[in-house]
Inverse folding.
């Protein structure tokens, strides 16, 4: 799975810190051969406490780690299973649409 941070929301001032990220919007995609599936969501973050990182020093890796910790392993596993199911449906469709005369 490939994770990407789309955007963040932050409080300009919170607990004596500037630009404290409160929500992270993310996207995850998985590709197998020519088929791909994706999911988009957001994760709320807890107050930074002693682990505060200044805005200018935050990396995408920091944000990804925070998002994945906020989601939890069970949710990430379920998300990957859902992406796998979407790809399986693309690979071997179980439904279709159309009209008989256009085939």
């Amino acid at each position: 799975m490939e994770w990407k941070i789309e955007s963040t929301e932050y409080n300009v001032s919170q607990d004596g810190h500037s630009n404290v990220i409160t929500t992270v919007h993310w996207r995850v995609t998985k590709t197998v051969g020519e088929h791909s599936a994706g999911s988009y969501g957001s994760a709320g973050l807890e107050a930074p406490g002693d682990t505060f990182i200044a805005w200018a020093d935050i990396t995408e890796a920091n944000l990804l780690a925070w998002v994945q910790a906020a989601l939890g392993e069970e949710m990430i596993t379920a998300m990957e299973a859902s992406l796998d199911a979407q790809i399986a449906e693309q690979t071997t469709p179980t439904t279709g649409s159309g009209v008989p005369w256009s085939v």
Notes: Helices lie at 60-71, 73-91. The radius of gyration is 19 Å. The chain is about 30% helix and 40% strand.
